[in-house]
């Protein structure tokens, strides 16, 4: 089995790497992001309250920017 990253856009699957084969191969395509969940996770600025955000993050001791960089690096792998 071989795993290759790619992007699905406008009905096309674009692989990050070219694979040369001389016969048809069966594939499984897994979408890493659920479109409905992605849409739901957007922040509604009209419902944002600074004080509530501070309360939620009160126990967060790491650097937010460092955590964002770490998360993005994990996602790229």
Structural class per helix/strand content?
alpha+beta
Helical coverage, percent range:
25-40%
SSE ordering: EEHHH
Strand count, sense and barrel status of the largest sheet are: 2 strands, antiparallel
Strand order of the largest sheet: 1-2
The rounded distance between the terminal residues' Cα atoms is 18 Å
Shape summary: elongated
Number of helices: 3
Which percent band covers the strand fraction?
5-15%
Low-confidence stretches: none
Task: Summarize the structure in short.
It is built from three helices and two strands; from the N terminus they run ββααα. It has 77 residues and is of the alpha+beta class.
Can you offer a commentary on this structure?
- The radius of gyration is 19 Å and the shape is elongated.
- Strands 1-2 form a two-stranded antiparallel ribbon.
- Helices cover 34% and strands 10% of the residues.
- With 77 residues, the protein is an alpha+beta fold.
Helices, strands, pairings?
Layout: E1 6-9, E2 12-15, H1 35-40, H2 50-56, H3 64-76
Antiparallel strand pairs: 1-2
Any key phrases for this structure?
77 residues; alpha+beta; two-stranded antiparallel sheet
């Amino acid at each position: 089995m071989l795993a290759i990253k790619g992007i699905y856009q406008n009905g096309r699957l674009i692989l990050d790497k070219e694979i040369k084969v001389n016969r048809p191969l069966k594939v499984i395509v897994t979408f890493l992001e659920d479109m409905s969940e992605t849409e739901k996770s957007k922040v509604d600025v009209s419902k944002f309250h600074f004080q509530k955000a501070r309360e939620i993050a009160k126990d967060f001791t790491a650097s937010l920017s460092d955590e964002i960089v770490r998360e993005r690096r994990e996602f790229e792998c």
